[in-house]
Task: structure prediction
Amino acid sequence: MHHARFSVCHTMFATRSLKHRKAMLYSFYVLIVCIVFYFVICLGANYVDSEKLPGGPVKKDLKKVLNKTHRESPTANERPQAQVIPKTVEDNQQPVKKHQGRVNMHIFEDCCGGSLQKLRSNLLYPLFPNVRTTVSRLSISPQWRNYGLRTFGYIHPAVTGEYIFGVGSDDNSEFWLSLNESPQNLERLAYVGETGDEWSAPGEYWKFASQISKPVLLVKDMKYFFEALLKQNEGMDHLQIAWRLNQDSSNFEVITSEFLSLYEDESSLLMGDIDHIPQTEASYDRFLESIPKSPNPVGDMIREDLRDHIFKIPLMDESYTKVLFPECDYKPSYIIGTKIGRYHGVNLIHFSSVYPNDYTRQTYAHDEHLCFYKQDTSFEESKGFAGYLNEVADPDVQGNNKEGPNWQRVYDVKPFDAGSKQSTVAVNSCKRAGNIVMSQNQAMPIVKAFMTALHSKDATRGYSLLRVLNVVRRQDNGKGSRYLVELELVGSQGQKVLVSRYVYAQQTETAQQLPALCSPKQFNWNPSATVHVIVAVKNQARWVIQFIREMEKIYRVTGDKNFNVIIIDYNSSDMDIEKRLKNAKLPSYTFKKMEGNFQRSGGLQAGINLVEDSHSILFLTDLHLYHPLNLLNSIRKHCVEGKMVYAPVVMRLDCGASPRAPSGFWETAGYGLMGIYKSDIDRIGGMNTAEFKDKWGGEDWELLDRVLENGLEVERLHLRNFLHHFHSKRGMWGNSA
Result:
């Protein structure tokens, strides 16, 4: 009996042991499956993150968009969005042991204003700094003025924990931090001001609520991409980024070298090497972003104007327009054609006038003064604008001779068109006045006479006037006026066309219903003429790249294949210009390397010599320019071979101004930017390379003298959105002043 119980117990124990072993075995299998599944998930996450969060310059989303420099502008949806830094750290992030003790710092000089918006509006930001260097801690005070700083790299926390960041600066600043080592995942954690007026004392992190961040979890041995921005105007300048653990006993301390490392070692890179520069939510290239068209813009010049995109309208066939008017001799009395005194040509240039108003006048400039009004003969400086008010007696109101205001006094005021009061003599013009504006009474009779001629021909009778786009008048006192008439027409089938033609109207003493128009003999513009844009350079990498990008912009938007970029390089050492041109989206380019010191006249002449077609147009230009999209169209229609050259007036931007908010003065005395036919510049002798071999400045006036002496007209107009960026001469062609 005992033995039987033992056998039963033994059997039961064996059965339980077997079941226990099976359970353990099953548990082991499940554990193996879980481990494999875990590694699969980790590998998948790592793959997704490697696609989504690169550890260098932005390669997806933002950079993909920004690198489309020849196709389209980036949109807000395509830019990386700032992400909230989580309270946990991703397991797949790789630890980094090597700390290099420094971070990258890019300096953007010649940038006025205290707000970071001024820095971001700079077309050179963030790819083209003046200086690229490094610093060993996040506390700086360069003791300089009118600059912006971008400091970026990696932060390496020494211990795992929640950190609080503080920023102090004069003027405005921002501190951005990524959730990992990718520049694409930034969030703005702390900042000092946004208007340019805010500042703090060094180490003062409690002046504004925005200066101190919320707690952020950071993990030891991980690296985190950061970006710190500073905008300085005048006075004291400083920036500190400090941190502390989220503990009652901790204090803010400046982040020092043992917790920092470089984003990129730039010591062996040329200034023309820009592909490594990170573009982020905090700092990205806005070059391709269109300037927003507000119904109430800050300045009228950024208001949409029909002339800005006139090239988009197809031209009416010339065979229809050339028979509209009888030919007439065209010999204006202001043509010189004889020897003049040295540099006297600038005193002989007169402006043409335009219709409708192109808003090139700087109406919003605070320092416009009264220059514009003093040219009106009825203006009395002692009375100011009171002279424009003519008091009208009110019979129902008795006179009031008491001191103080008289609320019932009323006046008569005559219309005052200030735009028509601008002096036609260029050297006497107000620097902020802009183009002379014709009145409607002056322009519309010419338009009506043009349309009457158009309707007199069977081929063009079906066209109606849709809009007056542009009328330009060059007045010849006592004789008549030359007009460029540009009208948008609509045909009977709804097709829109552009008519653009020069006409002449003689001045008559008797008033006529409509002026008699004629076609000035051999005075027509060629819409298909090739334009060669010529510039000479030396060691100006960031401006050269910007110039090429400007030319790409024009080609991308207009699709105009009849232009060629010519760059003459005086052996630049800061970039490979030819390589950049080869990769550029341009219809054509010509590159020539020159030895020796920089010569503007010699370089331009070298470019002129490269052009073989004498019936093409040369546009002698410079760096540091923002070009309007209608540049080529404007050059073609204001250059007439054997008759006229084009000298557009450029606006010199004030320090801190940009194409998005332009303010400055018109360079009415400068003639270094000129469009001229190759045959004409050859005829007048080209650039004066003998006298201006080792210097520049004055070569434009000397060239203008010879243009006038050889009987050529000069069309002088302020060109909308043709801007010269503010810059000092520090670092230009070896100039360190």
